[in-house]
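Hi Y.,

Following your request, here is the sequence exactly as I used it, all 222 residues.
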Amino acid sequence: MSLAKANAERERRDLVSRQVMDEARLIRFVAAPDGSVAPDLARKLPGRGLWVAADRTSVQAATDKNLFARAAKAPLRPQPDLAGQVETLLLKRCRDQLGLARREGVLISGFEKVAASIRSGQAAWMIEASDGSADGRDRLCALARHQSPAPRLFGAFDADRLSLALGLENVIHAVLLKGGRADRWTQEVDRLAGFRPLAPQEWVRAAAEAPEGFQDGRGEAP
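Below is the corresponding structure, written out as C-alpha cells. Let me know if you'd prefer a different format.
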C-alpha cells in the first residue's frame, strides 16, 4: 500500500470546523505535563490526540477559542504563538527531508544537472533559493513548462538555509526526483503551505503566464 493511500485511510475530526479529514491535512497536538499544548507533527507522542487543520487560521482559532481545553476536558493553556511554533517545526521537517533526499541520491543540485532532470521528466519538485537570481530560475521554469505534469515549485528557503540543509555550499537550484521520498516531502510541504507561502508571490505571478499551466507551490494552476 502506498504512503498516500495509507494516510488517506486514517481520518480525524478537526477541532475547529468539526469536519472529518485525512490525517495528512491535520496537525496533531497533545496535552503536555505542564498544561500547555504540544505540537506532535510526527504523530508519535503519547496521549489523546487533539487534531486541527494544518493552517495558521485554524490553529489560531483553536488557541483563541479554548478548543484544546474543551476537547481534552482539562485546563490546557496553549501558547499564544502556537501557530508560529508549528510553522517552525514544519520548516525543520522539510529541511530534514531534503537532507535525507540528498543522502539517498534523489535530490540533484546545480543548474545543468537540474535542467537535465527536468528535461527527463524525473523532477517532482523544483527547489529554488529565495534569494537566487531570476535569470537561472526563469530558464529552469521555462523547461518545466513543457513537462506534464510540471514539477511543483518550492522557494521558502534562502541559499544559506538550503545549503545548510543539504550539507553543500552555495545551493541555488535543486530538484527532488519522483518517488517515495518526494511523496513524504510533499506531505510535509502541503502542511507548511497552510502557514507560509511556498514561493514568493512574484514567482507565482510569473508562473501564471505559462501556457501549459505551470504549477504553484500547492500544485494548482495559479
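The two ends are 32 Å apart (CA to CA).

Thanks again,
Q.
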